[in-house]
Amino acid sequence: MPTIYDVAAKAGVSAKTVSRVLNSDAPVGGKTRKLVENAITELGYVPSSAARMMRSNKSGLIGLITGAISRNAEPVEPAGLPDLYIVQGIQSVISASNKTLMIADTGGSAERVPGLMQTFLEHRVEGLIYVADHHQQVDLPLKTTRPVVLANCRDDAQTTAVIPDDERGQYELVKDLIAAGHNRIAYLTIKANAVATTLRTRGYKKALHEAGIEFDQHLLVMSYMDQPEGASQLLWNVIDQLLSIPNPPTVLCCGNDEMALRAYGILRSRGIRVPEDISVAGFDNYRAIAETLYPPLTTVELPYWAIGAKAGQLLLEKIDGKETKGESPYLIGGPVRWRSSVTTKSKSVVNFKPSVV
Q: If 124 and its partner were Cys, which of 59, 217, 243, 282 is the partner (CB 3.0–4.6 Å)?
C-alpha cells in the first residue's frame, strides 16, 4: 500500500507538501498541487483517516444501534417498518453534515447493545444514537462522555430522547370523528402494557371529555396478539362483542393499520359494509395498507422519518456543543390522514372538513 512518502517521491516534492495538499492547511502552488494530485491518482494512495483523526480529535463518525436490518428482512405479515424509517431520517441529516453514519444491528438481542456501543467508542465515534422498534421505556448501558440520543424510546436517566406524540395523535383522531358526527367510538387497542396504549387511551378519553361524551368502558377493548392466528380470532371476538351490545359503536378505532386491515376482512365476512354500516380508522399511516384498502383508510400518521431527522439534528447540536432547545423527551406529532373509511353521521355535519386528507 503506497504511503505519503511514495506520493512525495512520485511528485518530486516533500512529504510535508503532500500533507499540505491533503489537509488544505497551507498554501500550495497550482502546478505543485497538480503534480501531487496526479501522483495520488496514479499510485492509488488513500490518506490515513486514523492519523487525521488523532490530530483533530474528530473522527467524522456517528454510531447508530438498531434492530431494523435483521428484524425486517423478510416480513411475513403486513406491518410498518418504524425503525427503518427512523434510520432513514437520521441518515438524511447526518449525510448533509458530511459525517459518516455507522450502523450496527442488534440481531434482535438487547444483550448485544453494550458490546456494540464499546465497538463504536473504540472507533472514536463523535456520538451515538439508539433506535427502538416501538415507543418504549429502555434501560441501556449509556456510561459514556460522548453525546447520546434515543429515538422512539426514553429512559429514566434523562438521556435526550425523541418520541412520537401518541396521546395527541389519538386525541386529534377522536376529535375529528366526533366532529364528523360520531359519539359511539370504540377504541381497539394494541398491547395493554404498551407505552403507546397508555398515552393513546389518555388522548381518546380527553377528546370524549371535551366533547361532553361520557366514557363507556365497554368501548375500550384490548384487541392485539403477537401470533397472527390468535390476533385474527381475538379481533373477531372483540368485533362480535362490540356489535352485540345494545348501543353499538358507529366507528372502530384500531390500534394500528394492520388491525384495521383485519377488521375490514372480518366485517365483510359478516356482510357489514365499510363505511356505510360502520366506519373504521387506524393508526400508523402505513401507506401500503392505508392507501390500498378499499375504501382507503382514515388513520393517524406516526412520523417516523421526522423522529429520525430530529434525533440526528439533536445529536449534531450536542456534538457541536450547542445547547439544545426544548425539554426532553421531544414529542413529534403526525396529522390525521382522513380518507373514505369514515363517513359523517348526520346532515348537521355535512360541511365537516378534516384538517388533513
A: 59
Residue 319 is given by DSSP the state H
pTM for the full predicted model: 0.80
Task: Give bridge partners of residue 220 from the DSSP assignment.
Answer: 187
Q: Which residues contact 9 (CB under 8 A, 6 or more apart)?
A: none
Radius of gyration of the chain (CA): 27
Cα separation, 100 vs 141, in Å, equals 23
Distance CA 275, CA 337 (A): 16
Domain 61-165+304-330 homologous superfamily, CATH? Response regulator (3.40.50.2300)
Residue 325 grid coordinates: 432547545
Domain at 166-302+336-349: CATH architecture? 3-Layer(aba) Sandwich (3.40)
CATH 3.40.50.2300 in the chain, residue ranges? 61-165+304-330, 166-302+336-349
The more confidently predicted of residues 349 and 188 is: 188
pLDDT band at 76 (very low <50, low <70, confident <90, very high): very low
| Bridging pattern class, strands 220-222 and 161-164 | unpaired
Backbone angles phi, psi at 281, to 5 degrees: -130, 155
Chain length of the chain: 357
- At residue 353, the 3 state secondary structure works out as coil
Q: Where are the beta strands (DSSP E) in 202-332?
A: 220-222, 251-254, 279-281, 299-300, 330-332
